[in-house]
Amino acid sequence: MLDNDYRSLFDLTGQVILLTGGGGFLGSEFAKGYAASGADLAILDIDEDSCESVARKIANEYGIRATGFTCDISNSASVVNAIEAIKAKFTKIDVLHNNAANQALGLTNEFASYEDYSLGDWRRVVEVDLQGMFLITQAVGGSMVQDGIKGSILQTSSIYGALAPDNRIYQDAKYETKNICSPAVYSVVKAGSEGLVRWLSTYWAESGIRVNALVPGGVESKQNDIFKQQYANRVPLGRMATAGEVVGAAIFLASNAASYITGQSIFVDGGLSTW
């Protein structure tokens, strides 16, 4: 519940945020935003070097506590060990931002056509993006309940969890040198993650734990200009998002400004879902 001092609505000082996938492209931006709002950070990633590097940089830049933790979120033992290590370091977890995704690790051809997509790649994406979400929310949410913390859980989803991709925008599209598309499994895991968000929002409501999904549209990174323009033509604001433009909504959902919001999917898509 809020008091009448609206100046502190977005202040995360004293909060401990567990950010999975924190060493990646979007994850490192989320980490900066949370740190700038005063939070301490446990940055979880399967890549030890990247999560420790991000932790060092933001701790030095923002003067908060930040530590990198290595974890394979698709492995239950790895998750349990990581949560124990985080609580030993920080004592508590106030916010979980489940941002980890497969990022092609261990996949043979992440952009194969539906007809050629391998069962092994399908299973690996589901293991990380959906099974991993189940394991990490189970462990952290259970910890919040046990510790009496009225926390916030965020899931990074995608517009493709709610909408089918417009395959026309992928004609001649590349990411660096790779031809790209939006694989069916990506839509499946994102839709599934939002289903679990809604389920958990009612399951943990009595404990005061809020559970929401952050739903970005396309974020500009290393796509070729053809794709960027074709995507922009589908968006009312006429462009892709920058990574930083997704961060504000994450801070909002993590903070007391969203104290009466749960079970929701917050779209940050430049208006694409309105067309």
How is this structure best described in words?
The chain has 275 residues and is an alpha/beta fold. The strands form two sheets. The chain has a seven-stranded parallel sheet, sandwiched between helices. It has a two-stranded antiparallel ribbon with strand order 6-7. It has one domain (10-268): 3-Layer(aba) Sandwich (Rossmann fold). Helix 1 crosses helix 7 and helix 3 (76-90) runs parallel beside helix 4 (119-147). Helix content is 40%, strand content 15%. A hairpin with a 2-residue loop joins strand 6 and strand 7 (178-179).
How would you concisely characterize the structure shown here?
With 275 residues, this protein is α/β, with parallel strands linked by helices.
List keywords for this structure.
275 residues; Rossmann fold; 7 helices; alpha/beta; two-stranded antiparallel sheet
**If you consult CATH, what is the topology?**
Rossmann fold
CATH class assignment: Alpha Beta
Task: Round the Cα radius of gyration to an integer and report it.
Answer: 18 Å
| SS-based class | alpha/beta
The appropriate CATH architecture is 3-Layer(aba) Sandwich
Distance between the termini: 36 Å
Give the integer mean of the pLDDT values: 95
List the helices and strands and how they pair.
Elements: E1 16-20, H1 25-36, E2 40-45, H2 48-62, E3 66-70, H3 76-90, E4 95-98, H4 119-147, E5 152-156, E6 174-175, E7 178-179, H5 184-203, E8 210-216, H6 225-232, H7 244-254, E9 265-268
Helix pairs in contact: 1-2, 1-7, 3-4, 4-5
